Amino acid sequence: MQLQRLHEAQSQKRAASARSGCRPLAQGLRHVHHASGCCRDTTVTVAKAVATREVAVQQHEWSDQAFPTYLQSLTSYDPLSSSSSGSNASLSYDGCDGYQYLWKAIRREAKREAAFEPLLSSFLHASILGHDSFERALAFVLSARLANAILLPSQLFGTFLEVLLTQPDVRDGALADIEACTQRDPACLSPSMALLHYKGYHSLQTHRISHALYMQGHTVMALALQNRLSEALGVDIHPAAKIGHGVFMDHACGVVIGETAVIGNNVTIMQRVTLGGTGKETGDRHPKIADNVLIGACTTVLGNIHIGEGALIAPGSLVLKAVPANAMVAGSPAQQVGERQMQLLAAR
């Protein structure tokens, strides 16, 4: 009997010991679990920080490599205003009327180059120095470049000059486009260089004239100019397309702009850009480009979609959906990869 009681006492003692030993073990496990939870939280926080930094670095790389700052229009400006905040230092008007200052600057450059390059003196006199106004010089340059055996230079000159003299919006657009060239192209050394040699500039001004003729009901003549522009310079812009002021078309090889396309002010368009329809629509079927947009080389934008103000489209993109304002998009189909740097927008 005593032996049985002894065994029971020992069993109870062992059970108590076991229970007391489990308590610190459970506490230890809870501490370990809490510590591992903290580690997981820390790991998640670090991972988020790394991901955020990678996104920032990627966006910075996109901004630097795909969207050069000098190609981006940062301000809205009026080349005819002496108070234009976006004016290039080379075009500072010194209180003069903007039109007169620009024309005098172009003539001054032409005189200097004619003296320095005797072989080009006759070309410079025929193109600039032999004219008493910017409108006459531009009409001569365009007619000489687009003339052929059927469209004679003298006939084109008269048509172009009449539009430039009677349609102030056409002349103002031509002046704003010259300033856009000097602002956004480091290779453009002077306004006279854009007027005499830039294919993109000539293409835009030919379109402005053909658009004015189209709106006046001269549809056949407007379409003839569109066709001749495509043949001579490799740029196809339907005369019904609407294009704002201060547009810079760099290189301009293979640019196609459809009938119902609308392009805002201060837009930059690189080579081989297509603003077209999807082929499945009629009527209003082409893109609408807002102000201060940059469209990279070899980009295709299809359909009646809106590209928001300040948007940047990387080279080689296929854009099928609307793009928000100040967004950077890239790819085929294009996806948003970042946003335009706010320090650039601050200049506006």
From TrEMBL:
<dbReference type="GO" id="GO:0006535">
    <property type="term" value="P:cysteine biosynthetic process from serine"/>
</dbReference>
<dbReference type="InterPro" id="IPR053376">
    <property type="entry name" value="Serine_acetyltransferase"/>
</dbReference>
<comment type="pathway">
    <text>Amino-acid biosynthesis; L-cysteine biosynthesis; L-cysteine from L-serine: step 1/2.</text>
</comment>
<dbReference type="InterPro" id="IPR010493">
    <property type="entry name" value="Ser_AcTrfase_N"/>
</dbReference>
<dbReference type="GO" id="GO:0005737">
    <property type="term" value="C:cytoplasm"/>
</dbReference>
<dbReference type="InterPro" id="IPR045304">
    <property type="entry name" value="LbH_SAT"/>
</dbReference>
<protein>
    <recommendedName>
        <fullName>serine O-acetyltransferase</fullName>
        <ecNumber>2.3.1.30</ecNumber>
    </recommendedName>
</protein>
<dbReference type="InterPro" id="IPR042122">
    <property type="entry name" value="Ser_AcTrfase_N_sf"/>
</dbReference>
<keyword id="KW-0012">Acyltransferase</keyword>
<dbReference type="Pfam" id="PF06426">
    <property type="entry name" value="SATase_N"/>
</dbReference>
<dbReference type="InterPro" id="IPR011004">
    <property type="entry name" value="Trimer_LpxA-like_sf"/>
</dbReference>
<feature type="domain" description="Serine acetyltransferase N-terminal">
    <location>
        <begin position="102"/>
        <end position="206"/>
    </location>
</feature>
<keyword id="KW-0808">Transferase</keyword>
<dbReference type="GO" id="GO:0009001">
    <property type="term" value="F:serine O-acetyltransferase activity"/>
</dbReference>
<dbReference type="Pfam" id="PF00132">
    <property type="entry name" value="Hexapep"/>
</dbReference>
<dbReference type="InterPro" id="IPR018357">
    <property type="entry name" value="Hexapep_transf_CS"/>
</dbReference>
<comment type="similarity">
    <text>Belongs to the transferase hexapeptide repeat family.</text>
</comment>
<dbReference type="InterPro" id="IPR001451">
    <property type="entry name" value="Hexapep"/>
</dbReference>
<keyword id="KW-0028">Amino-acid biosynthesis</keyword>
